[in-house]
Amino acid sequence: MTENNFWLKKIEISVSEAEKRTGRNAMNMQETYTAYLIETRSVDHTDGQSVLTDSLWRRYSEFELLRNYLLVYYPHVVVPPLPEKRAEFVWHKLSADNMDPDFVERRRIGLENFLLRVASHPILCRDKIFYLFLTQEGNWKETVNETGFQLKADSRLKALNATFRVKNPDKRFTELKHYSDELQSVISHLLRVRARVADRLYGVYKVHGNYGRVFSEWSAIEKEMGDGLQSAGHHMDVYASSIDDILEDEEHYADQLKEYLFYAEALRAVCRKHELMQYDLEMAAQDLASKKQQCEELATGTVRTFSLKGMTTKLFGQETPEQREARIKVLEEQINEGEQQLKSKNLEGREFVKNAWADIERFKEQKNHDLKEALISYAVMQISMCKKGIQVWTNAKECFSKM
Amino acid sequence: MDMNSFSPMMPTSPLSMINQVKFEDEPDLKDLFITVDEPESHVTTIETFITYRIITKTSRGEFDSSEFEVRRRYQDFLWLKGKLEEAHPTLIIPPLPEKFIVKGMVERFNDDFIETRRKALHKFLNRIADHPTLTFNEDFKVFLTAQAWELSSHKKQGPGLLSRMGQTVRAVAMSMRGVKSRPEEFMEMNNFIEIFSQKINLIDKISQRIYKEEREYSDEMKEYGPIHVLWSASEEDLVDTLKGVASCIDKCCKATEKRMSGLSEALLPVVHEYVLYSEMLMGVMKRRDQIQAELDSKVEALTYKKADTDLLTEEIGKLEDKVECANNALKADWERWKHNMQNDIKSAFTDMAEENIHYYEQIILLQVIMSIRR
């Protein structure tokens, strides 16, 4: 729970609880899901006291809806990602089940993190739908759908087409795309191997636990060694069980890396939008250029470009001067419109690039700060693990030497 | 202290053996030093085998010289063990490493296997040398000093294979009888041996498993570190931090390797030796029971007047002495064995704990350096 640092200065947001619920889904079938309690508090600046202003329950799919809405309405923003839908990069002990309490707990933290990121974003925090998400429990879904944002969304096919055909995208976005691909690839790899390392470490610790049991049984037949064996065995048990907390902490570290894995996708979304806009612009410019040419040809009578009208004219006889005038007029109107559109598209494009790039710079600073913190906290975790290890083995050594 | 007072001429009465127990393992009194090294492969038309070089240094008068160098193969060690068991049926003879390793290795002459065996053979000979009675055994002396052809001809002496086989069959039948009339203290001993055997076997398995898990952990870590270096190539501002993490992981890897080698040098061989010892002990128990059974059957024969009573009485007298001797020998050696076992186990596990402490201390230093870099 941290204080928002931009617009909603006096607001604290927390996802404080998670609860299992059963209900009926769209197809009227029974389903079980988890609901999360979101509490909003306003903080009095003078004495730091906080008062609960809103509290409501939301499920994961509503968070998804909110994010999809934000993606459509703020395409120039690197929209914070949600925690993963299903547990991935799992090492053997963790359940991949969405109902597993550890998974639910980590997801709760992830969802809170998401809301805090949105609330501290200079642009996103002003959004009405976001405000309603925090304050209006009933009817919120309908309100979102009424904005018609799904219709405004760019089709994936269109975006893919643009990616392949755009001729002059801004170089910075091309580089950014490469960067985000690399980021995604390297973090995935790192998380995969980390999961395997965690698995192995778990094995090493847990096998030591077997010593505990055997030492205890052995101590029953030993007179002088008995006490030493018994107490050493106890320390082996302590050692074996210490790995559970250690790996739980590491899961939180992995979650921090995962957030940036998913951020890579958000970066790519911004790049895609730029490509789409740029492609649109290029198409509009191309279209305008061809219309101008047609107009010129009609006016001067030379046919340089192929047109169906030209062909049919050749085949079925020339048109009258009046017909020609009419066509030229239509084209001139279209050209005018086209020029206006091109101007505004150009403006839009430049605005987009400017705003997007500002947000990307903001994102870069946030990323460098967060990842550095995460990596250092990882080192701190290792230190804590070592301290525990030293203590346990020092105790065990004492028991052994007293045998 | 006159070294020659421990000559083999001295009667091995129970009392004198108890006195000898007090002086065992004192380094100043050690007068026989043995090393086993330089395994060498020999290829003949029939077979391939390994010999080990054995160097003996001694100040004992009964040895012709003060230094000896011979080559022996595993078969020769087996022969020696057999002779010792024959001569001292109720003494705890040190165990030999196994003939074959059951799991894993197919190749008999794998380097690790040979090295492990060499160390175990070295231990075997030194344990005999440290044993107050066995150290003066004649076959032991021949083993250490005789040239190859001398050893061969010496081996050919003694009871033939057939008569020894015949003895074994009778002995098994006898030992069953001996169990029933086993005195209380040996019941306790047997109970201890059974439970000890179970537990030490489990500890052996656990320790091997730990070694295996650490190996796999180290392998994964070797892949984990370099990913951070790879990542640093695309992150200008995080290069130092990422490379720092990579270097920590790398050193952790090396520390793990060291921990593993500590385990395989100190703990694993000791635990495994005691697994083999526990098998030995069960054999010793059986032989004691056999000797007891021989006496019991003669006593029973006397009771039912099955044969010449005078002859029987004489035989019984001899057997009673034999039983008393055997029991006392075992009792004394048992105390000695237990004392050594406690020391060895204590030492091995203390070393293991020390290795682990050292391991964590090494890593903590690196992580602290890492976390200070901001």
Automatic annotation (TrEMBL), chain A:
<dbReference type="InterPro" id="IPR034902">
    <property type="entry name" value="PX_SNX4"/>
</dbReference>
<feature type="domain" description="PX">
    <location>
        <begin position="14"/>
        <end position="140"/>
    </location>
</feature>
<keyword id="KW-0653">Protein transport</keyword>
<dbReference type="InterPro" id="IPR034783">
    <property type="entry name" value="SNX4"/>
</dbReference>
<dbReference type="InterPro" id="IPR037430">
    <property type="entry name" value="SNX4_BAR"/>
</dbReference>
<dbReference type="Pfam" id="PF00787">
    <property type="entry name" value="PX"/>
</dbReference>
<dbReference type="InterPro" id="IPR027267">
    <property type="entry name" value="AH/BAR_dom_sf"/>
</dbReference>
<dbReference type="InterPro" id="IPR036871">
    <property type="entry name" value="PX_dom_sf"/>
</dbReference>
<dbReference type="InterPro" id="IPR001683">
    <property type="entry name" value="PX_dom"/>
</dbReference>
<comment type="similarity">
    <text>Belongs to the sorting nexin family.</text>
</comment>
<protein>
    <submittedName>
        <fullName>Sorting nexin-4 isoform X2</fullName>
    </submittedName>
</protein>
<keyword id="KW-0813">Transport</keyword>
Automatic annotation (TrEMBL), chain B:
<keyword id="KW-0653">Protein transport</keyword>
<dbReference type="InterPro" id="IPR001683">
    <property type="entry name" value="PX_dom"/>
</dbReference>
<dbReference type="InterPro" id="IPR042130">
    <property type="entry name" value="PX_SNX7"/>
</dbReference>
<feature type="domain" description="PX">
    <location>
        <begin position="30"/>
        <end position="151"/>
    </location>
</feature>
<protein>
    <submittedName>
        <fullName>Sorting nexin-7 isoform X4</fullName>
    </submittedName>
</protein>
<keyword id="KW-0813">Transport</keyword>
<dbReference type="InterPro" id="IPR027267">
    <property type="entry name" value="AH/BAR_dom_sf"/>
</dbReference>
<dbReference type="Pfam" id="PF00787">
    <property type="entry name" value="PX"/>
</dbReference>
<dbReference type="InterPro" id="IPR042131">
    <property type="entry name" value="BAR_SNX7"/>
</dbReference>
<comment type="subunit">
    <text>Heterodimer; heterodimerizes with SNX4.</text>
</comment>
<dbReference type="InterPro" id="IPR036871">
    <property type="entry name" value="PX_dom_sf"/>
</dbReference>
<comment type="similarity">
    <text>Belongs to the sorting nexin family.</text>
</comment>
